[in-house]
Amino acid sequence: MSVVADREALTLPEPVVRQPRKRWTRFILPVFTLGMITYLAFPVFVMILYSFNVLPDTGESERQTADFTCCTIAHWQDILKVQELNKALITSIEVAIPAALIATVLGTFLGLVLGRYSFRGRGGTNFIIFLAIAVPEIVLGSALLSMFVHTQNIVPLGIGTILLSHIAFSIAFVAITVRARVQGLDLTLENAAQDLFASPRVAFFKVTFPLILPGIVAGFLLAFVLSLDDFVITNFVNGTTNTFPTWVYGSVKLGVPPQVNVWGTVLFLVGVTTAGLQVLRARRSEIEA
What domains, with CATH codes, occur in the chain? Predict the structure, then answer.
């Protein structure tokens, strides 16, 4: 009994675990993040809200006002009412699709070369790509206008010059996106395919291309969006052709019709849906891998 009592007396008490104090500083990052998201998304929310605004019946053409009266879907029902706006939007899409496709093809090849090979002039090429992104749009727009003025007999100002300009500034964005994807690849996978008697072409299309496809798709979407919403460069080289941004800018003098908010909401929803599907596809690919 004495031995047991001695052991009990020598047993050290369990240390008291103190719970860490919850400081108020833990709210700084979440509050800051929420504030930045609200700040960036607020104009979009206003645009969506004003697409349901009830306009006063003045007997004149419908123009957006700062006063908000809830709510109507009449503008959504009359989304095709303004013919000039519809024409400008169609022009933007007709330019954005081929511009994104051509820029994606050229930018993908450029990104592959820069991401996989070392060659003389690689640093200069990377610098030119960076320069194409860093140069202010007003500088690039004025330079393109100066070039097209001297070639009006070949390519008159209009949809052709808009297309060429959008391809020119979109290639750099696609190249950087694809290059980042290529640099993150494991080259041993392609080497293993060639060790299994696959030709370089088969190894590229069976191994490399599926791995860089998310980067190519991201580059295409980025080029498409940049072309669709570009104003500064387009305003320099469009001549008498109006795209969606240039038409909206010109309509500010007379008053913006509410259909602009409707079309803006539609484009926003399409963009969010496309981005969401791309994220789901990427997560599914990671799970399957």
Answer: 80-288 (1.10.3720.10)
Token pair 């399409």 is found at: 270
Burial of 239 (0-12, 13-18, 19+ CB in 10 A): middle
- φ/ψ of 198, rounded to 5, equals -85, 135
Tokens of residue 22, six digits: 């919850």
DSSP assignment of 162-179: HHHHHHHHHHHHHHHHHH
C-alpha distances in Å from residue 235, one per residue of 92, 149, 202:
13, 14, 45
Print pLDDT tens along the chain (289 aa). Answer: 555 555 555 555 666 556 666 676 778 888 899 999 899 889 889 888 888 888 776 544 567 777 777 788 888 888 888 889 899 999 999 999 999 999 999 999 999 888 888 888 888 888 888 888 888 889 888 888 888 888 877 778 889 899 999 999 999 999 999 998 888 777 777 777 777 777 778 878 888 888 888 889 889 989 999 999 899 999 999 888 899 999 988 888 777 888 888 998 998 888 888 888 877 877 777 776 5
N-to-C CA span, the chain:
64
Distance between CA atoms of residues 166 and 173, nearest Å: 11
